[in-house]
Amino acid sequence: MTDLTIGLPVFNAMPFLEECLESLLKQTDEDFTVLAIDDGSTDSSLRYLQSIRDPRLNVVTQIHSGLTFTLNRMLHEVSTPWLMRHDADDIALPDRVRITKKAIEQFPDAGMFYFDARYRQNERTVGSFRITRATPAQLRQITNDGYLLAICHPTVTLNVSKAIALGGYRFDLHIEDIDLWWRMALRYDIHYIPEVVTYFRHTLSSVSAANLERQTVNTLYVQYLLLSHLHDLPPLSYEYARDRLARYVNKPKLVCREEMRRANISCSQNHFWDGSKHLAAAIRAHPLYFAGRVLYELRPNDVVFNGEDPQMFLDRRDVLWPEERDSVVSAANSARTLTGNAKSVECV
């Protein structure tokens, strides 16, 4: 009996879905199941899934409910102890299942595993997905220091019971993954396995590309929640914190990331002149971040992570944690009242 399910959320995934599913069903280790949940697609995705005659593929349909709902449904519907994530526009390398099972055998008590990924566009791989390459202890220390882990979600394999114990995925804000990583790192071991298992499709129409600025604000909110947890501070709801956090978005870094993304895609399409213009724009926007991204490709042993300096948040405690201030003022007023009452009693 298999102990591994591949979770495949699908929403309007054509034409990439065909290549994706083929890469999964042609794994060298064939002992797995695929749980594909079609989230109310309006293209031909569902029709294609239902045309596949493979007993390992289980297709579930639902009205459109969003990615976070779909991922949590997967966690609760799988019958295996491990859930291997995959996106419907990405490509699994032939040995991904075999390598994942080897990791499970080596670290059976892990909370999750993650692997390397490379960007792929037009049959070409162009650069590595930037991730935190570190040991479980280092990952926990980075998290305890108030920073966020950089992990490619479609390379992750989750221990289902442990992910559920943490509350699963939260927030339909395109950052449901990094919010789970910090909670996982503080409670269970996360193992990085230095193997490329996924080709990550890099397109301007992807969720990350279409929501880059909003996603950046939302990432700040996740880091804010982490710091709230670490310092035992009462966090604001997303609706109240969003505008306050938006002031701290590093706009030059955002422009640099966007231009690097466009350069990557242009070069993969053999549009080298356009690619060089985007690279020049990226360097102008944030030379330091650009240099760091280049060095990441050249120095694979460097440990990188996401987030801003935690002190930036803590220096603005009155703005970001006003309930703490209010509670302190309330406590001080109560103390003065009690002191005044005590003095009055003494004077009687």
How would you portray this structure in words?
- Helices cover 51% and strands 16% of the residues.
- With 348 residues, it is of the alpha/beta class.
- It has a domain at 4-204: Spore Coat Polysaccharide Biosynthesis Protein SpsA, Chain A, CATH 3.90.550.
- Strands 1, 2, 3, 4, 5, 6, 7, 8 and 9 form a nine-stranded mixed β-sheet that branches.
- Helix 2 (45-51) links the parallel strand 2 and strand 3.
- Helix 12 packs across helix 13 (287-298).
- The relative contact order is 0.11.
- The model is unreliable at 328-348 (pLDDT under 50).
Question: What is this structure's SSE topology?
Answer:
Elements: E1 4-10, H1 16-25, E2 33-39, H2 45-51, E3 57-62, H3 67-77, E4 82-85, E5 91-92, H4 96-106, E6 112-121, E7 124-128, H5 136-144, E8 157-159, H6 160-165, H7 176-187, E9 190-201, H8 207-210, H9 212-230, H10 238-246, H11 251-268, H12 272-285, H13 287-298, H14 310-314, H15 317-320, H16 322-347
Parallel strand pairs: 1-2, 1-4, 2-3, 6-9
Antiparallel strand pairs: 4-8, 5-9, 6-7, 6-8
Helix pairs in contact: 7-9, 9-10, 11-12, 12-13
